[in-house]
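can u do me a favor
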């Protein structure tokens, strides 16, 4: 694996763990696609640092459990803003 990829994977993993960030947030922060971040965290990180991979997996599992709640809140806020502008 190339050094710059390994560095990106480590940096994204640390960012996710420290901030409880989502894949989408990490992708935006590091200027790569969500697919790249997901591949980095699920596949590449395991080869680089298994302990860090476990920590990231915990954060991603929590995010997955909460995503329907965040989606509902975003939809509610969207309609609240729309109602205020009418």
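np, heres the sequence
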């Amino acid at each position: 694996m190339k050094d710059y990829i390994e560095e990106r994977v480590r940096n994204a993993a640390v960012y996710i763990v420290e901030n409880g960030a989502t894949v989408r947030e990490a992708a935006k922060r590091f200027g790569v696609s969500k697919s790249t971040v997901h591949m980095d965290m699920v596949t590449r990180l395991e080869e680089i640092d298994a302990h860090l991979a476990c920590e990231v997996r915990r954060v991603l599992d929590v995010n997955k459990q909460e995503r329907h709640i965040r989606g509902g809140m975003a939809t509610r806020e969207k309609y609240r803003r729309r109602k205020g502008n009418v």
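The mean pLDDT is 91. hope that helps!!
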